[in-house]
Amino acid sequence: MRALFIVNPQATTTTPRSRDVIVGAIARHVELHVAQTEYRDHAGEMARDAAGEGFDLVVSLGGDGTVNEVVNGLLRTPEGLERPSYAALPGGSANVFIRALGIPADPVEATGAVLEALRSGSSREVGLGRISSGRDDRYFTFCAGFGWDADVVHEVERRRRRGRRASPALYTGVALQKFLRGQTRDPSLQVRTPGRAPVSGLHFALVTNTTPWTFAGTVPVQPTPRSRFRLGLDAFGMSTLNPATTARLLGRMLSPAGVPPSGRGYTTWHDVASLTISSEHPRPFQIDGEYLGTRDRMDLHSVPKALRIIV
Fold first, then answer.
1. What's the pLDDT tens digit per position in 268-302?
2. Confidence bin at 15 (pLDDT 50/70/90)
3. Same domain, 88 and 145
4. Concatenated DSSP letters for 122-149?
5. Which residues contact 153 (CB under 8 A, 6 or more apart)?
6. What is the pLDDT of residue 159?
């Protein structure tokens, strides 16, 4: 088996020594070619070209941004070529997609799990989400968000460019700061799904492909606890954004059961094939923790059994 190992050298939770250990372990089992990312979407370009270069497997080491790039590259494998399988190793601060697959959060332990899966021939097909607009056509692995969370992602990216390290504490601090300053209150969003009345007046809307939505350290955050890779999309929208409601919902998100399907101050959707989120004016938008800019409308679709994962 020929494998392409895509490494993000800026991965926040690995060191050159640990990366060498991982490469050595994998190279004992497959014919391995190692490539480092050099610029944004480089991982996607390499994944897209992997089939044409004769690779049967793509392995990545990086965070959720690297995973998103690789997945989008693999889903754009040229027609007529067999798409390689994919194995994702954690190298970021959250690794939401990888943890949701049940892969260990430690990269060395994750490598052992992936190698065991390769030896036994274990794999699974996972569904993905797809977004489309006049400017976009991309897949997401675990979430897409309008409003508050996208604004937080944007600010964290800005601080990272100034030298700050991404961490759950940084995301939490930025989110709290924006909430206390009143920068999150904007009930301009509407969610529409086939066969259901539109829901307007939402401050914040999140679409998920699995649970959890994110990790606060080792704690999963679950606004859509029924979301699964094998189902359609789930969504969560907040219609009330005051301190009491937000504190109550945050407590439920951090609980083992997550947020109930219905309650005061929010609306949920479960296992839908498609939905549209629109806004009265452009709002921040993100997928898989990557800020895409502002949008006033986005169509989202479930793509069942989109990708084969070694796990």
1. 999 999 999 999 999 999 999 899 999 999 999 99
2. confident
3. no
4. -EEEEEEEEEESSS-EEEESSEEEESHH
5. 145, 284, 286, 289, 290, 291
6. 86
The total number of structural domains that make up the chain: 2
Residues 50 and 160 in one domain: no
Question: 78-92, pLDDT tens digit by residue?
Answer: 999 999 999 999 998
- Regarding whether 151 and 83 lie in a shared domain, the answer is no
Q: Say whether both 191 and 234 belong to one domain.
A: yes
CA distance 306 to 105: 24
What confidence category does residue 31 fall into, taking pLDDT thresholds of 50, 70 and 90?
Answer: very high
Domain that holds residue 14: 2-121
Q: Is the residue at 126 inside a domain? A: no
Q: Which of 34, 22, 41 is nearest to 104 (CA)?
A: 22
CB 67 within 8 A of CB 93: no
Q: Which two tokens stand for residue 11?
A: 């991965």
Question: Do 56 and 203 share a structural domain?
Answer: no
C-alpha distance from residue 81 to each of 6, 59, 84, 165 (Å): 20, 18, 9, 39
